[in-house]
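[job 4471] stage=fold_predict status=RUNNING
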Amino acid sequence: WEAFPPMLAAVAVAAAWAALTGMLHLDGLADTADAAFAPVSRERRLVIARDVAHGTFAVVAVALVLAIKGAALTGMPRDAAAAVVLFAPVSARAAAVAAMRTFPAARPEGMAAATRAGATPLAVVGAMAIAAGAAFLALGPVGVASAGIAVASGMAAAAWIAGRMGGLTGDGYGAVIELTEAAALCATAAFLANGHGHA
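[job 4471] inference complete, writing structure tokens
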């Protein structure tokens, strides 16, 4: 990490982050962007979401999220960047569990409907507790605040996606995860830039 300039190190971290997940959630973001932004009916959006081809909305959404992650990491001290990389994914998955519980599945079949059954109130509480704990260990109160902002942002994104799609799909959960992670990085970068918190 120390051997690279800040921007190159940030890009390397973002690339490794994507690789470790098999780019699964980025694919979900891409499919959801193509479907949710399309000026068509909800039924047609669900068809678009299953299309393996990616259009302009998908490309722009993925590029922006990766650029935001890289820019946020570049602007942080390296110890803080390492800390936020630890808790941002945890916060994002907590947001996904909460979204599963809060919003209906867009289809009666498929991954969203199957996984939603496991999003019990206890699972949501547990996920939030784990996310808060990870954030506190990483960055103290600022980490918890950043995680809270990120989860709220993820839930807002989930509400918008559900409104456009008539519910959430498995790809929608991936989009929520990616957007929550980006929000966690942005919130942390903003706090640190204003002199709040340390790793």
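[job 4471] summary: The longest helix spans residues 121-165.
[job 4471] exit 0
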